Amino acid sequence: MATKKKPSSDQGSSSSALDSSRWEVSCFWERRLQKELMSLMKEPPPGVTVDAEGAGQNLTQWIIQMDGAQGTLYEGEQFQLQFKFSPKYPFDSPEVTFIGPNIPVHPHVYSNGHICLSILTEDWSPALSVQSVCLSIVSMLSSCKEKKRPPDNSFYVKTCNKNPKKTKWWYHDDSV
Amino acid sequence: MGNCLKGSTADDISLLRGSDSTRDSSSSDQLGPPPPYQESLPVYYPSPNVSRPVTQLTEEEQVKIAKRIGLIQHLPTGTYDGCKKNRECVICMIEFMINDPVRYLPCMHTYHVECIDDWLMRSFTCPSCMEPVDAALLTSYETN
């Protein structure tokens, strides 16, 4: 990856990433992220809010507020998701973690915010999007029957890489 | 994205594009399919999530990639005719424009040639239905 550009340096200083005139100079992943950002702002899925200003300033890192769905164990709770995109997006999956003070207590969510969800690594497809990832995570939380951490939480959190995509995940439990 | 489709150092890459170049810089207007990410050396994906510059591939990986390029070439291409069923390339999320070069997968999902070829070099599955393309190719040979 000799010429892997640092995405943040691509951001023009004068115009925001949401400015459509920037489309002329932006490349593949920027264009697609701008489109996704627009549609997420216009028609967000229920309980999902994107920090559009932050994402507009730095397209490679988005913060998304997620409300626990009504009628689930997470009703009334608020979570923050962080999405990081590489210039290979959407061919490479985004790096998605829970951040902030409230990390959902869930059998597939580690206390450091890492999420064990196959579409974030080996089952990723470029037809997926920020919106579909958010919906999958909402649905993963909603189907939870008992709030508890993964059984290997303390070991994993001590030994894992900062980037959850570096983890060799074992996906075995589709029930929650 | 890894620029596995263009690069002066690897002449076999032209195979992927077919004999007639699907697009040149003059025909790509601002809203057309976007240009691939530029890398100095072509990078290949011997298996998903494993990327290596062309110079660091094992012989086995080179064979696998050459086979993959050959298979991709067997997938039909065309130009977008305004068909209402496929309005948008879900990879770049840009609406097809008349005469955009497109590739049809055996599952009948359609993408910009440039978008889907880049993905198929990483994973030989349809992004929309996850159908393995090689299995579907074989089935289509058997039924025809």
TrEMBL record, chain A:
InterPro entries reported in the protein's UniProt record: Ub_conjugating_enzyme, UBC, UBQ-conjugating_enzyme/RWD
Recorded catalytic activity of this chain's protein: S-ubiquitinyl-[E1 ubiquitin-activating enzyme]-L-cysteine + [E2 ubiquitin-conjugating enzyme]-L-cysteine = [E1 ubiquitin-activating enzyme]-L-cysteine + S-ubiquitinyl-[E2 ubiquitin-conjugating enzyme]-L-cysteine; S-ubiquitinyl-[E1 ubiquitin-activating enzyme]-L-cysteine + [acceptor protein]-N-terminal-amino acid = [E1 ubiquitin-activating enzyme]-L-cysteine + N-terminal-ubiquitinyl-[acceptor protein]
Region (Disordered): 1-21
Alphabetized UniProt keyword annotations: Transferase, Ubl conjugation pathway
EC number(s) given by UniProt: 2.3.2.23, 2.3.2.25
This protein's record includes keyword Transferase: yes
Name of the protein in its database record: N-terminal E2 ubiquitin-conjugating enzyme
TrEMBL record, chain B:
CDD domains listed in its UniProt record: RING-H2_RNF11
Residue ranges that the Swiss-Prot or TrEMBL entry lists as coiled coil: none
GO cellular component, one term: ubiquitin ligase complex
Ranges of Low complexity composition bias in the record: 15-31
Gene3D superfamilies named among the record's database cross-references: Zinc/RING finger domain, C3HC4 (zinc finger) (3.30.40.10)
Keyword list, A-Z: Metal-binding, Zinc, Zinc-finger
Protein name from the UniProt record: RING-type domain-containing protein
